[in-house]
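thought: fold this chain, then report.
action: predict
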Amino acid sequence: MPETQARVESAIQDLDYRPHAIARSMAQGRTNTLACLAPNLTDFTYASNMEGAESVARERGYYLLCASFADERQFVDLVDELVARGRVDGLIVISPFVELPVQHLPNDFATVLMGGCPRDDVQNLAYLDNHRAAYEATEHLTQLGHRRIAQVTGPLAEDCAQERNRGYADALADAGIPPDPALVVAGDWSATSGHAALHELLTRAPDLSAVVAQNDRMAVGILRAGRELGLQVPDNLSVIGFDDMPLASYFDPPLTTMRQDTFAIGQACACLLMDALSQPEAGPRQIRLEASLVVRQTTAPVHPC
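observation:
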């Protein structure tokens, strides 16, 4: 009735009432909230991915919740809490693991996987071309004349580590350099593991002249170990990293590395998710992003014996 409506409107003005955004969106069948799940919330790469995704979500009128999972059980619980209970409209999953999330991703829910390689078992995917990036990192060293090129990998249970290992091996093969298992050591992405890896590598192959580190933190450990062992970088040892983390240009010496735009990868994931929400009838989409070589002062032509 007109009188009732007038009283309601008057009360709204008197109380300065504002509609509850969550309740209003839920009444419309949506929450205006997205979730981004990652193995942790402290790693620079993951944090930058989330920041990129959040920038797109905010621009499109969505909130982005971020949560971490340490294992498969936690991942399943998070998906159940957020998706099955209708707390979010869409989901971004950042996972370096080859198989962990895929079998638990809901088929009938807007979901994007941020992974380390192309794959056929997910609909929406954004990934860095890790194979190509590692190939270019290794090729940079072969073009400088290095032939005894070692590699410190991340955990090989992770697809990006596998892809980077494959790129390293392919670049050596194309340069006519036979593979040597003694020149490959697995790390855990930490500077500590890079430090230990160089000590192990030099015990196995004291004639190595260059190292490909699968991330910048391990490269930092390699630089530290080299100094402790009396090696001059790059005169006695060339080192190339991966990521181009913000401090890479301030290392001593400044680090040659493969730059990945982690912010842009997060943006790409969010854009894919927006498309999946607005065009649910559209087919699967996969976006490949490229890394770029940044040459600084830790790589140089090999010195003749």
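thought: worth noting. The first strand starts at residue 33 and ends at 38.
final: tokens above.
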